[in-house]
Amino acid sequence: MNQKASVLLVDDDKDMTETLFDILIDSGYRVEIANNGLEAIEKVKTHAFDTVLLDIKMPGVDGVETFKEIKKIRPNAVVMLMTAQSVENLVAEALEEGAYGIMYKPIDTKKLIEFMENTKRGALILFVDVDLSTSQKFINALKERGYRIAKARSGEEAKNIVQKTRVDVVFIEVKMPIMNGLEIFQALRKIRSNVKIVMTTNYREGLEDLIDQAISESAYACVYKPFEVGKVITLLERILVGKTKAEIRQMEGEDDGKS
Question: With 60 as the cut, is the pLDDT of residue 99 above it?
């Protein structure tokens, strides 16, 4: 990008913030540090940062409360959460309130830079479905976070988009006419072997074999409509920061254990 974003790092771990500060400065970003929530809120009052990297678990004012105050001051701020702990209730709350995403510590610095570049341009999410009405709340939440949205109503249309455009993640409805969701999944994988795909459906019975085969062939998950927005955004962010399917399943197991 021609002009690098300004970044506010918010974490009580001073060693980590100094390390990330050096990495981001070396990458051309303009960076400031706050070591607690109150300091971050004061800095946001005087400067419109492009991105805020915010630790969710801090003493005093925690990351969720800090996030809420930041959004009051800068409604359009892109806020990415950071955590090393299982605090999925806090994460879900912040995502529902409009936080952009979540990164897990220790931070993979290469993926951090990629993630910030994606944030600037807006990751492209493709929905393949003949009826997106039950997905609209989720789509609206993605648009509010700066994602770009593409839509395809058939397998052929999805293939054309993936052939011509770099798509970051594809959500495919399992029950589709002509080409079913599994066949669309397989066709897209032939075009781009590394395309990241999540299966979706309104139907909980009768499609188990298609879903299981897609999962066995590297689909990340199958999520059921209507989407639980916070949970699906958490899944999406984990995919975008490069978590493997195995890592995501482990995290989801930890999440279930906390609920």
Answer: yes
Residue 62 backbone phi and psi in degrees, to 5: -75, 175
Residue 150 in this model has a pLDDT that exceeds 90: yes
Superfamily the domain 122-227 falls into: Response regulator (3.40.50.2300)
List, as own/partner pairs, every contact residues 131-140 make where C-beta atoms lie below 8 angstroms and the sequence separation is at least 24, other chains included: 134/202, 134/225, 134/226, 134/227, 135/171, 135/200, 135/225, 135/226, 135/227, 137/226, 137/227, 137/229, 138/227, 138/229, 138/232, 138/233
CATH 3.40.50.2300 maps onto the chain at: 6-120, 122-227
Nearest to 162 by CA among 176, 152, 147, 153: 152
The mean pLDDT of 43-57, rounded to a whole number, is: 90
What pLDDT is attached to residue 244? 80
The CATH class of the 6-120 domain is: alpha beta
Instruction: Please name which of 198, 193, 76 lies closest in space to residue 129, comparing C-alpha atoms.
Output: 198
Is there a contact between 182 and 213 (Cβ–Cβ < 8 Å)? yes
Q: Which residue has the tokens 């400065």?
A: 25
For residue 170, what are its two tokens?
A: 């594809």
For 130, other C-beta atoms within 10 Å of its C-beta total 11
Which amino acid type is present at position 21? F
pLDDT tens digits along 237-255: 888 767 788 888 777 776 6
pTM over 0.70: no
Alpha helices for the chain (secondary structure H) = 14-26, 37-46, 63-73, 88-97, 109-121, 136-144, 155-164, 181-191, 208-216, 229-240, 245-258
Say yes or no to pLDDT of 93 above 80.
no
